Amino acid sequence: MNPFTTATLAWQTAFVFTLRSLQLWTEPVEAQARLTAYALEKQKAFAAGAMAAGQAALAGAAAPAVLEAALAPAHRRVRANARKLMRG
Questions:
Q1: How many domains does the chain contain in total?
Q2: How far apart are CA 60 and CA 21, in angstroms?
Q3: Domain containing 14: what range?
């Protein structure tokens, strides 16, 4: 996996986590519903990644390609969340 891509994913993940945490602190009334939505979002990304990794492995892809397939759904979701949070 490209080191730049990995570093970008790590930065975006920390950014999203920090901003979402601040939102939970400033809007405690909505915290439970948001936390539930965040958990479901992660489960969906994990399931999609597991399926993609399984398909890549069954297709005979090399280990790095399987890893990239596994991380792709989570990376897309984190990138979308970061963009959404930056826009306000």
A1: 1
A2: 40
A3: 3-87
CA proximity to 56, closest of 42, 71, 73, 70: 70
Q: Which two tokens stand for residue 56?
A: 């890549």
Question: pLDDT band at 1, cuts 50/70/90?
Answer: confident
Percent of the chain with pLDDT over 70: 100
For residue 11, pLDDT beyond 90: yes
Q: Report pLDDT digits (tens) over 66-82.
A: 999 999 999 999 999 99
Name residues whose C-beta falls within 8 Å of residue 36's C-beta, 6 or more positions apart in sequence: none
Print burial letters for 25-50: b (CB count within 10 Å at least 16), e (below 16).
eeeeeeeeeeeeeeeeeeeebeebbe
* The two three-digit tokens of residue 52, written as one number: 């993609």
